[in-house]
Amino acid sequence: MMSTATASNEALEHSRTDSEPVPSGVFPQAVNWNNPRVAAILETAAECFSRGGFSTTTLADIGRELGLRKSIVHYYFTSKATLVREVQNFAYGRYLEVIRSAVSPTVDDLNPDSNCYDAGFRGLWARLRDEKSVRGLNLELWSEARRNAELAERAESFESEARRLIGEHFIAEKGMSGDEAQALATLTLAVLDGLTVREERDQGTERSSRAYEAFCKLVSK
Amino acid sequence: MMSTATASNEALEHSRTDSEPVPSGVFPQAVNWNNPRVAAILETAAECFSRGGFSTTTLADIGRELGLRKSIVHYYFTSKATLVREVQNFAYGRYLEVIRSAVSPTVDDLNPDSNCYDAGFRGLWARLRDEKSVRGLNLELWSEARRNAELAERAESFESEARRLIGEHFIAEKGMSGDEAQALATLTLAVLDGLTVREERDQGTERSSRAYEAFCKLVSK
Question: Are B68 and B38 in contact (CB under 8 A)?
Fold first, then answer.
């Protein structure tokens, strides 16, 4: 037990390098994300699922990557289904944080000298693009949710909250009607997802960024 | 052999009901799509992969759906990888046809009384939305292409042709520069993909259509 714990702590510290504070989820947490081991399992699971897809990645694979026995992963997540659901919650929590800070009315106020393209709504795509594991995981979740009603329902709740946040931004910034703002918020989320699809293929080209810039120009007209 | 052939012919006729003429692919065809049995296998494979995903759907599953023995499916497609590649080609061929007819300069000329929203560029989303098996298959292909370099490369060739077609439309219709048209073409394809993600969840609501309408309004400003 001791040697496993030591190995897992090393793996844990390794996996937490450069990571941001643990975000809260969209849904109540099934496990306590402030527990560093839980956080490490979630982050590693997100990477493994993103890399290998849900159907072929096992709890044992995730444990191996962290130097943890499968039984320890099982201690926190009783089944793969529970872990998949919690990883979805984790990814959506990060995604909503990015949206929240991008549409926050104080971003530009606080950074009057910041590059306009990187601030607020105009920086939304660049910030999501850089959340690499969330980005890849999203593509896997879209596919998985087509065959898993609970994931689909949770995806819809997440979407509805994201739409509300972006819609309120358009109402406040552009004086749009609620219906107009809702349609434009749906469009914005569609653009972000569509660019995610492209970025997974085109990484390194500036094509997605130019397309998002074109979108911002259209919206600001 | 005779009874299998009869059963398969019935299944074949069943599966061809309501189907459109076989489109050509984006890439050279690995098998002859004008052979009705090949066409039936491709259509059924597209539906099965769309429903169950690539990793868990077998050649035997596809054969069973058509009342064909696995060995007959194997006769036309020597491996699952070959079939997956050809189904991608088939789906992309349909997708390009929809784009081609939507951006064709003659659509509005030929239908002067048609509802503007259903014609040409404004009807692009509605037409893709109705290609149900292509729509679902697309989501599966994005995920699969992340782990299959050949599918990713073919996806990029398809995208490049789609971008060219839509870009030329913007150059001709809006007098845009090549760079502007390319960015807007990438954005259009991202919008279509992002709405596809939503439609798979939201089917039946008009949310995606309203978002596409908002996009067309922005573009036509």
Answer: no
A173-185 confidence digits (pLDDT tens): 889 999 999 999 9
| pTM across the whole model | 0.85
Give the single-character DSSP code of A20: P
The dihedral formed by the CA atoms of B21, B26, B31 and B33, expressed in degrees to the nearest 10 = 0
CA A75, chain centre distance (Å): 25
Measured in angstroms, the CA of B146 and the nearest CA of chain A are apart by 7
Q: How far is CA B132 from the centre of its chain?
A: 9
pLDDT tens for chain B, 221 residues: list them: 334 444 444 444 444 334 444 556 778 888 888 999 999 999 999 999 999 999 889 999 999 999 999 999 999 999 999 999 999 999 999 999 999 989 886 545 555 554 444 468 889 999 999 888 889 999 999 999 999 999 999 999 999 999 999 999 999 988 999 999 999 999 999 999 999 999 988 877 899 999 999 999 999 88
Neighbours of A35 (CB within 10 A): 12
pLDDT tens digits along A99-131: 998 988 654 545 555 444 446 888 999 999 988
**Would the CB atoms of B208 and A214 count as touching at under 8 Å?**
no
Hey, how many other C-beta atoms are within 10 angstroms of the C-beta on B36? Answer: 14
Count of positions (residues) in chain B: 221
Query: How far does the CA of residue B35 sit from the closest CA of chain A (Å)?
Result: 31
- The two tokens of residue B181 are 């048209």
Cα distances (angstroms) measured from residue B57 to each of A74, B42, B66, B80: 28, 14, 14, 9
Q: Inspect the interface and report whether the beta carbons of B142 and A143 lie closer than 8 Å.
A: yes
Residue A76 in contact with residue A38, Cβ under 8 Å? yes
CA of A29 to nearest chain B CA: how many angstroms apart? 24
**What is the end-to-end Cα distance of chain A in Å, rounded?**
63
Alpha carbons B75 and B92: distance in angstroms, whole number: 24
Amino acid at A25: G
Q: Tell me the residue type at B209.
A: S
**Measuring CA to CA, which residue among B160, B194, B216, B1 is closest to residue A197?**
B194
Among B147, B184, B198, the residue with its CB nearest the CB of A214 is B184
Report phi then psi at B78, rounded to 5. Answer: -65, -20
A146 touches chain B (CB under 8 A): yes
Q: Which two structure tokens, joined as six digits, stand for A147?
A: 């065959």
**DSSP E strand boundaries for A125-220:** none
| Residue-level pLDDT at B105 | 62
